[in-house]
Structures are given as C-alpha cells and as structure tokens.
Amino acid sequence: MTYLDGIVAVHRERVAADGRSRAKVLEQARRSGAPRPFRAALAARTGLALIAEVKRRSPSKGDLAPELDPAALARRYEAGGATCLSVLTDGPHFGGSSDDLAAARAAVAVPVLRKDFTVDEVDVCDARLMGADAVLLIVAALDDAELRAFTQLAAELDLAALVEVHDAAEVERALHAGADLIGVNQRDLMTFAVDTHRALDLAAVLPAGVVRVAESGITGPQDVFALAEGGYDAVLVGESLVTSGDAEAAAARLVAAGTGRRS
Question: 52-65 pLDDT, tens per residue?
C-alpha cells in the first residue's frame, strides 16, 4: 500500500462512518456565506502569486511547527504579500483541523483553500461550511466519476476547485472533468519523493485558460523565478515558510521573486 492509499483509506472510512444526511449537509452548504474569489485572485495577480500554507506537520518530515498560531501566521503571510492561503485540515497525518482554517480565515481578507483529502461530496460541502473558499481535489485519489462530480459540486457551491495532478495522464483526466485551476504537485504522493523538475516538465501540457499552480519542493526565490518563466501563475508553499523563522519576510521574498524583483 502506498502513502496515498493509506491516507485515502482513512478518509473513506471516516466518511462511511459519517451519519449526517447528505441532503441536509448540502442544503446547509448552499446557505453558507459567500466564498471569497480564490481562482480570480490568482488569475488577476500581476506576476506569480503566492499561496502560503498553514501546516503543522507532514507524514514525510514529521513536526514542522506543531504549536503554530494559525491566525497569527495567516496575518504574517498576508503582510508578506500572499495572494491566498492554504490551510491543512487533515488531523491524523498533518495535525490540522477545521479550527485552524476558521481561525486563519477570520484573521485575513484573502481567500483560503481547504487542503485535505476530498473523497466524498460531503467533504466538498464541509469545505464550504467551515468557511473555505476553495477545495482540493487530488486526481490520484479519485475515479473519473468522483472527480467530475466533485468539480461540478464545488462550482455549484461557488468554491474554486484546485485539481492536483502528478503526470500528463492526470492532466488529461483533470481537463476532462472540467478543471480550470490545476496544481502540479512535485511531491509523488505514492512515495513522497520530490521531483523539482516535474512542474516545468508538465507546463507544456497545461492549456491556455487554466490557472497553473506549482506545489511542493519550492524552497526559495530561485525556484519561483524558474516557475514564473515556465508559465506558472502561482506557487503553493508551506514547509519552507513555516520553518523559516520569519514567515512574513520569507513570504515577501517569494512574492518579490514572483514579480521579477531580486532581493
């Protein structure tokens, strides 16, 4: 069993044990407050945008910042120029929670992605209910019917769907499902190994009109310069920011690199 298989199995078991009425959850989600425009914020950005991540730990690296204050960190990211935030809400593997997302979002004005393993329509609804503006859909974790259904439901709830891919075949699946916001994860979720060339290698198969996001393995301005030149619209960065010691300054350096300024 791969890392991804194990994580997804836990989430599918959780959903199977969820006794809530799907119809009631959907109705509650529809009545929730209007999301902030996540995809539009990235598309409107001059230069390469930063999605800064609130991340306590990772399965591959262990604890990163287990005692972080999500609201305080979110404010530092916003002050550093982040266009959007990403918040891990997976508890068993990343130490996150819906409370982290709620606290971070309440502290800032920028849109926020719920970073988690979406395996059911109720997960999409929960993203809206907890206040997220976007939801993550991992192609490798879903079949084609799920991918299309969750993408459509996200649109119905006015949530952006960041559809995550790892290779050209997954790009095709994402596009077939209607994705217009695609993240290329340079971390292989089967092995957790990082390939820092993956995003640049896949840039050629991402069509015009798709907002392109590079994820994982981004450690500093030099990576941002390369990805901007490779045609990406945004980078999603967590580990190097939460371990930097000065999240605002670290975010500002990446933002400056995204606009072509060397600092």
Answer: 999 999 888 889 99
